[in-house]
Amino acid sequence: MKLKNKSFFVFLIALLPLSGCGVYSFTGASLSPDIKTMSIATFYDNSGQGPAGMGQNFTESIKDYFQQNTSLALVQTDGDLQMEGNIVGYRITPIAPTASGNANVADQAGLQRLTITVSVTFVNTKDETANFKKSFSFYDDFNPNTESLTSAEPRLIETIFDQIVFDIFNASVANW
Fold it and tell me: Which superkingdom does the taxonomy of this entry point to (predicted)?
């Protein structure tokens, strides 16, 4: 019986460092225990391009990510953490030109790249040193010879938004 009690005691001691003070989580978020709420304003699409509703889709993506990866309560305004921003860039550029091999036929792009840029202002009301105003950008490529922009766009935007949201999360609450 004594060995069983000692084993249980050792197990509890081993778990103690993992319990901590609520400052660290397994998602990488390092939040002070006095931070309880977050407000995320609607991100508007100021790029002048892209599909309708892109700003709303980005806003929902970032809200979902923070709700899934932190214990913060989402509030409309005046959260302990506050975030706002805009989609400021939506650009398609050719990145892999291919020669047509015919002087009478124009060369084409073998790949095109969609790049989206989001400007973010982040305010931590409990720690001013964590505040920032930054731009986050990411891209994904598609082959215009096998897939139209219209058909590739939803997949490209989802991939790009996922990475930008992850980068914003890391910059704001994971301190990476």
Answer: Bacteria
